[in-house]
Each structure stands twice: as C-alpha cells, then as structure tokens.
C-alpha cells in the first residue's frame, strides 16, 4: 500500500458563528473559521482561551449553543429542519466522526488491546474494513509512524511519545478528511516531543487537512499555512506565520508571544 493511499483526501472545515457556554461562562464567542483542503492551521492562545473547546465543537464532542460546523458542506452533528437545526442521532454522529480524526493530549489508547489492535479497531467497528484488511492497514500505518516493531506491544509497554504516535496512526485508520490535534505534545517529557512533531510534520506535507492546537511556537512557524490566535473565545487575528508570529497586528497577540517566545 502506497503512502498516499493510506491517507484520506483533505476536507474543507467551516466553523460558522459558534458560541459555547459552560454555565454562565462563555467559552467561544462568535467564532468563524474556514480551513481549506490540505491546509495546516495552527491555533494558539493562552490557557482557557477556548482552543480545545473549539476542536471538540468541530467533531461535536461539545455541542455549540449557537452556530454550526460543516465538513465539505455537510453539517456536523445536526441537520436542518426548516429554519432550525436538529440534533442527529448518536449513531449518525459517530458515523460522521469517522471523517474527523482526533488526537488527544493523553493518548486515549485502549489499555487491554495491543498496538496493532488499537489501530485496527475503528475500521472494523465501523464496518469499513474486514479484520484482515484492517490489520494490513494498521501495519502499514504503524510503519509510517515508525512503530512497525511495536505491533504486538501493549500501551503500558510504550513511552509517551510512542503512545502518541500510535494515537496518530489510529486517527489515520479511517482515512479522515481532517485530523484535529489537541496539544499533542503537552503530556510528553521534553525529550520525547521531537518524535511526535516529526510524524506531524510528515503529515503536513501529505495533503491531509490538519488543525493543531499547540504551544510549540517554533513548530507552528515551520509547518503552518495559517496561524490563528484565540483569546477570550474570539479569534483575535489570523494569517501566515510570517505575519502573525513575526509582525502581529494586535497588542494582545504581541503580549502573548512575548511571554512564550
């Protein structure tokens, strides 16, 4: 199986006027964002700014009170009923999530399954592939992330960096149109960060649409097509790394970067 055939075709992600509250606290405040097919978008912002919540809204792990998200024009988690949006069934939402890969901070691997079975599980569970084809795909994906020799190991036998690379392979197994990364290196020891970033850099040149929440500014500068800075649940500014990171227009962005660079 070629490297290209392992991956899905990059999708367009559209976030339209999304608002999200936790009780009285507004976490997202009118977010509009379009991510083009194959684009690498990096989201930066201080803790509590709404970055992770935005990712969770994209794949409907969190439901926005106002606004909606679409993938290649298809609404995620809802359908139109007249002039209103009606929640889809959980089964329908799970089907849609097959097109949206998600890599969490803390890996979220199944501890009772081998590395190979962790990666092969989703294509089998969704009926997209039979077990033999899913196992073949899983082996190819593990090879892509440099872990072909760990197929028979269990998550507890791996380093944090290795576990996160397995999580990336698992996210790729359904050939999603977009992959969301929620601070994929934040739970790792510093010496393990590079191996995970290297895998993401490889994906960034593959045509897969990537949306990455990270505090790794140098990494963002290297791979992002666009950097989005969020504060207080709003997009403060966005643009190429050469603009947002080197010549930010807004005082809030400059203040944030002065503290992390």
From TrEMBL:
Pfam families: ABC_tran (PF00005). Residues 13-257 form the ABC transporter domain. One of its GO terms (molecular function) is ABC-type amino acid transporter activity. It is found in: Cell membrane. SUPFAM superfamilies: P-loop containing nucleoside triphosphate hydrolases. It comes from the Bacteria. The keyword NADP does not apply. It is a peripheral membrane protein. Keywords: ATP-binding, Cell membrane, Membrane, Nucleotide-binding, Transport. One of its GO terms (cellular component) is plasma membrane. This is Amino acid ABC transporter ATP-binding protein. The lineage of its organism: Bacteria, Bacillati, Actinomycetota, Actinomycetes, Kitasatosporales.
């Amino acid at each position: 199986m070629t490297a290209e055939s392992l991956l899905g075709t990059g999708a367009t992600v559209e976030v339209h006027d999304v608002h999200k509250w936790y009780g009285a606290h507004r976490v997202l405040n009118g977010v509009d964002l379009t991510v083009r097919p194959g684009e690498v978008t990096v989201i930066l912002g201080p803790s509590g700014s709404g970055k992770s919540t935005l990712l969770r809204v994209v794949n409907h792990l969190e439901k926005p009170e106002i606004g909606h998200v679409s993938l290649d024009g298809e609404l995620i988690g809802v359908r139109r009923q007249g002039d209103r949006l009606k929640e889809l069934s959980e089964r329908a939402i799970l089907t849609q999530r097959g097109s949206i890969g998600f890599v969490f901070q803390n890996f979220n691997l199944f501890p009772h399954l081998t590395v190979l079975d962790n990666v092969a599980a989703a294509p089998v569970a969704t009926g997209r592939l039979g077990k033999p084809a899913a196992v073949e795909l899983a082996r190819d994906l593990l090879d892509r992330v440099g872990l072909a020799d760990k197929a028979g190991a269990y998550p507890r036998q791996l380093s944090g960096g290795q576990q996160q690379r397995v999580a990336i392979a698992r996210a790729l197994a359904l050939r999603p149109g977009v992959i969301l990364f929620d601070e994929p290196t934040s739970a790792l020891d510093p010496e393990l960060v590079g191996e995970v970033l290297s895998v993401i850099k490889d994906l960034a040149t593959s045509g897969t649409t990537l949306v990455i929440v990270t505090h790794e500014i140098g990494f963002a500068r290297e791979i992002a097509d666009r950097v989005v800075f969020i504060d207080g649940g709003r997009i403060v500014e966005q643009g190429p790394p050469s603009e947002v990171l080197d010549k930010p227009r807004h005082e809030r962005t400059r203040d944030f970067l002065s503290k992390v660079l």
